[in-house]
Amino acid sequence: MHSTLADPASDFQLHSPTVQKLSNGLTLVVEQIPVEAVNLSVWLGIGSSVEAESVNGVAHFLEHMIFKGTPQIHCGEFERALEARGAVTNAATSQDYTHYYVTAAPPDFAALAPLQIELLLNASLEETAFERERPVILEEIRQSEDNLRRRNFYRFMELAFDYLPYRRQVLGPASIIAELSVEQMRAFHRSWYQPTHMTAVAVGNLPVEQLAEIVTGGFDQALTRQTQAYSLASIATAPASHAPEPPFTQIRRLHCVDEALQQARLVVSWRVPGMNDLSQTYALDVIASILAQGRTSRLVRELREDRQLVNAVMANNMSYRQQGLFSISAQLPAEHLRSVEDSIISHVARLKTELVTPAHLQRIQTQAANRYIFGSETPSDRAGLYGYYQALTGDVDHALSYPAKIRALSLEDLQQAAQRYLSTEAYAIMTVVPK
Question: Which tens digit of pLDDT belongs to each residue from 188-209?
Fold first, then answer.
């Protein structure tokens, strides 16, 4: 076992996780903090983006099936064990990752953490349970299609990406889920639910050595049972890699009518670097804050506070593994669509030629860094932060250095990022209006 102590940024000394790479391929991150809870988060660096088109949605369906038991743990037994101890669990599937966690009181962690690990590695995936869960997944897809926010998100992603798998729905289409077989799910599970694709993070008020012993012991026991079931020799698969899509070369427009709307929606977006080019994302995070995060940001102040053209406006730098999207969205009366688009593009153009003041930059940097720090105070927050960065970048140190990276940006860095990535003559814009 190789062990290293991560070197946190100088302004982030409260964070000091121990990172270990185990011989079975698992990355283990542990940290003791003085909060009377312990969180085990297991992150897989795979999600819907690794699926073949023919099984789109299997990663999310599998997330549901993981909780249906193993040969060692009957269906419902895990949940009863958690409830008896006042612990909680949940899971999520995204394009680039799948995430499971359990949070328990420190005295209960040794009993509950191995159960979570056993479920992940040795899920039964019985056909009867699979067929019982299929209608649940189909209903979730139907509800998603009826959800206005999700519907607009799907439209937007199909506009923004031509071929990257981010344009597909994580839940998958109902037509594929209706035909998916349990054998296809078992093959997906065998390929991806292996320690080489996992980061296990344990954070809470137990000594680091005890946290590591509990988690490594849980994996050792589960893997012993797993290797008795089938050979792992042929399933060392790496996530597929795709080249980022090129920047837009012209203005790409999508106009939709949606009878569920009361007010129009507008989203302007640019293709930008993602987590695979992490150094290029920091300036874009700060630009998002300058433009439309908080009441004093430029677009909020002009469009909502002063001119009252929108009810809400927000900027976001969304970083997927292979590519990112820098987006500005607004909710507004339909008659203001053109004026608001013009104002957004004008403010983007202004960033390229007119620098913010040093005092303004320092205030934005402090806000961005502090939001990040304040979002990592609990064991579950901290474990999620470490697991996310380790799973998507392969280096937990990126979780530690974020505030320092933000504070190190210069005015020229912001200007260069705006000039390089935010064209005022080529972007994607979606407008959705009431019927």
Answer: 999 999 999 999 999 999 999 9
Structure tokens at 97: 């990752």
Q: Above 70 in pLDDT, residue 342?
A: yes
Cα gap 406→391, rounded to integer Å: 21
The residues pairing with 203 across neighbouring beta strands, listed in sequence order, are: 31, 39
Using an 8 Å Cβ cutoff, are 45 and 192 in contact? no
What's the rounded Cα separation, in Å, for the pair 22 and 35? 27
What HEC string does 98-133 produce? EEEEEEECHHHHHHHHHHHHHHHHCCCCCHHHHHHH
User: What does DSSP assign to residue 300?
Assistant: I
What residue type is 397 in one-letter code? D
Identify the structural domains of the chain with CATH numbers, from first to last: 2-229 (3.30.830.10), 252-433 (3.30.830.10)
Instruction: Please tell me the predicted confidence (pLDDT) of residue 12.
Output: 45
**DSSP 8-class letter at 91:** E
Cα separation, 144 vs 265, whole angstroms:
18
Asked which of 134-138, 141-145, 239-243, 281-285 is least confident by mean pLDDT, the reply is 239-243
What is the identity of the amino acid at 17?
A: P
**CA 258 to centroid of chain Cα atoms:** 28
Residue 263 vs residues 67, 312, 419, 428, 434: alpha-carbon distances, Å: 40, 11, 32, 20, 6
Tell me the per-residue pLDDT of 283-306, one tens digit each, with 9 for 90 and over: 999 999 999 998 889 999 999 999
Q: Which residue has the tokens 């031509």?
A: 162
What's the pLDDT band for 254 if we cut at 50, 70, 90? very high
> What span, in angstroms and rounded, lies between the C-alpha atoms of 354 and 431?
29
Helix, strand, coil shares, percent, the chain, to 5: 50, 20, 30
